[in-house]
Design goal:
Length: about 260
């Protein structure tokens, strides 16, 4: 049997707050195969984004993994050093953040920001990186990409900034793409365009994707499996047709209703 691309085993994460310790994840276990799309749904505060940030080793300084194991491509990355993570983040695993305007650097052009990702992992000249960045903008269907390369984030719409984030995330063709609420703040038409684009890119490049969303409809349409989280735990997991057609857990039933 082939090992999963990503395995999360009994993961517990605690945050230090002014009021003491808060356990954000209470024993999360999930697996993801190569090329698969897994949806994680649940209300705000259920632990969806904390799970993603744990996988990427991007937890806030107040947060720490207290138990469990994270395995990526058979390698234990639970408490990986910075030198171990450097070649992985951005190249083998990458993340699309909730708010693209906040995630993008406001004082660098989007072309330079995409080039930064490429040059961090590949020995490219500035000219070569710019050419690759241009092709990535074309891949995410941005019109007049030559002009947009030299634009700053504030000069672009929310939907276009989200496409820039997607271009950065797929720049090095990672095996794992985590999309954390990738359609937040977008109108319905732009949401569909972004999701169709993500589905097409991941399928064409053979990427696995974790889609974190509040939108059960998106999870049902774009995911092969869906995990439901409540209060730091996965309470139910199955293919979307089963999950939404015949939910078993009381919390899932309330969400669907």
């Amino acid at each position: 049997m082939t090992a999963p691309l990503l395995a999360i085993d009994d993961l517990k994460v605690t945050f230090s707050t002014r009021n003491g310790l808060v356990e954000a994840l209470k024993g999360v276990s999930l697996t993801l195969d190569a090329g698969e799309t897994l949806g994680i749904v649940g209300e705000s505060g259920s632990g969806k984004s904390v799970t993603a940030f744990s996988v990427m080793q991007l937890l806030d300084r107040a947060g720490r993994i207290t138990n469990g194991r994270l395995t990526f491509r058979g390698q234990d990355i639970t408490r990986a050093s910075r030198s171990m993570l450097q070649p992985l983040r951005g190249a083998a695993m990458s993340m699309i953040f909730q708010n693209p305007r906040a995630a993008l650097n406001p004082i660098r052009t989007v072309g330079l920001q995409i080039a930064d990702v490429l040059r961090a992992h590949e020995p490219l000249s500035a000219k070569e990186a710019r050419e690759r960045a241009l092709k990535l903008l074309e891949a995410v269907l941005i019109r007049a990409p030559e002009t947009r390369l030299d634009a700053y984030p504030h000069e672009l719409s929310g939907g276009m900034c989200q496409r820039i984030m997607i271009a950065m995330a797929i720049a090095c063709e990672p095996a794992l793409l985590i999309a954390d609420e990738p359609t937040t703040g977008l109108d319905v038409t732009t949401q569909k365009t972004v999701m169709d684009l993500l589905a097409e890119i991941t399928a064409r490049r053979g990427m696995a994707m974790i889609l974190i969303t509040h939108d059960l409809g998106l999870a049902a349409q774009y995911c092969q499996r869906v995990a439901v989280m409540e209060q730091g735990l996965v309470v139910e997991e199955s293919p979307p047709a089963t999950l939404f057609g015949n939910p078993r857990h009381p919390y899932t039933k309330r969400l669907v209703a």
